[in-house]
Write the structure tokens for this entry.
Amino acid sequence: MKKRTLIKLISLIFFLAYLPVFTSAKKHPSSAFTYREYPLERKGISLHLDCLKKAADTPKRNILLIHGVTYSSHEFDIDYKDYSLVRKLAREGYAVWRLDIAGFGQSGAVENGFIPDSDYAAEDINAAVTKIVNETKEEKIDILGWSWGTVTTSRFAAKYPEHINKLVLYAPIMSGLGQYDVTEEYHYNSWEHAADDFQKNEDGGFDYSVAEPAVVEIFCSSCWHYDREKSPNGGRRDLCVPTTEKLINLEKITVPTLVICGDKDPYLNFDLIKTSLSSLPQGSELEIIKGGSHVMYIEKPFYHNFQKRLIQFLRSN
């Protein structure tokens, strides 16, 4: 109890210290970018779909970012220094789209938290891609999925490859995380859970040589702001199956795919990841970044390399 109280106190101190950074990023978006939300609905549920691009720019490449199993698409826009993946891709000339799966973040609520499972989410992605194609008149887009998002995007890609240029599986959950009965419809979120994927020291404190304090606090504050107290558990129930059960069928993916992850990611089956290229089409690539964790895209020693490697793949012929 004392340890949890101490963690909360430390988190509060850092949150108050970096509150101006967080609030200014949300209330005063940079004039260098244009931001727009696009109305979208599937099965009677409103889906949050937004797009950010450079101001006065008409990008010819579009990329859709798909979030993981607990927190929504705000995670891709940690607007501190140059950490934001959304803004980095926009600076590189992309129109960057983000979708919140039904029941997550700014999308509408679901009647049952088990409804948005992996197959359901794949259809939400299809609705978003169809919207993007219709809006932009570009027939193909790039797609990046992170964590559970690799399961959902790979299922979308297997079923609807015609609108995909390139696919990125970041921190791919290739197989089950271990048998666990998920009996509750919702995961009840907490500050500690939001911060749990950041690398820790031996004493349990954050390793601030890997993740800057402001990044941790902005990430956790965004989770609390956008995802609030709970998130659907359909995807989590899909993941909590035996480690022998494959969740991504690479042989059904027909588009060039980048598999990218950190070698300190505790959720991954590296035996399957290291052999993934043998099942993927020509033009696919594999990158394992030494020292990176599940959130290496916002870890100080690794995020520049992650961004560089991602953009290299997207631009390659």
Summary: The CA atoms of residues 26 and 206 lie 25 Å apart. Confidence is low (pLDDT under 50) at residues 1-28. The radius of gyration is 19 Å. The longest helix spans residues 2-27.
